[in-house]
Amino acid sequence: MIPEAREVHLSRKDRKVLEACCRSPVTLQRDLKRARIVLLAADGRSTRSIAKEVGVQPRIVSLWRHRYADHGLEGLQDKPRPGKQPIYTKTTDKRILKLLDKPPPQGFARWTGPLLAEALGDVDCPICLAVPAQATRLTWWLASPGARATTRTLRPKPPMLSASMSRRRRRPLCCAWTRSPRSRLWSERRVI
């Protein structure tokens, strides 16, 4: 059952923000739908007609009407989702990046993940997982000896597979290619 529709009253400022959101080419689809729902609700449209036009269920329209009526524009943002909290904070990220600016320990040509973990002392997981935002930079650092973050610019990571490698290799249709002692060519099989 659909709850009773709440009236939505938009201020001029909120209307401008929502209309700009609808016109922007970089707006996420979920935010665009939410903005359209609120704008159509403010024009006095019914929940079912808004749902049909926007392409969502009527209960979704009702949800965003209520959220906007209760909390305004902030109500249209996602609530924090449950899940495991990150193990490391931004301070750990900064500590790792400061270590990368220093030369590696005596006897080593470059920093490695275990060396970084040992130097930090309290890091007990792979370093690239500890710094997801800097993983590309960190991987680049670990691969190049004597690099300095302040003097070199990073290139974006190459794609995982090049166009020539993305084609799947097909298995041979003939069993002679399997190199199994029991396999024989189709022509060699005898019908009993």
From TrEMBL:
Coiled coil: none annotated. SUPFAM superfamilies: Homeodomain-like (SSF46689). It holds the Pfam family HTH_32. InterPro entries: Homeodomain-like_sf, MscS-like_channel. It comes from the Bacteria. This is Putative transposase. The lineage of its organism: Bacteria, Pseudomonadati, Pseudomonadota, Alphaproteobacteria, Hyphomicrobiales.
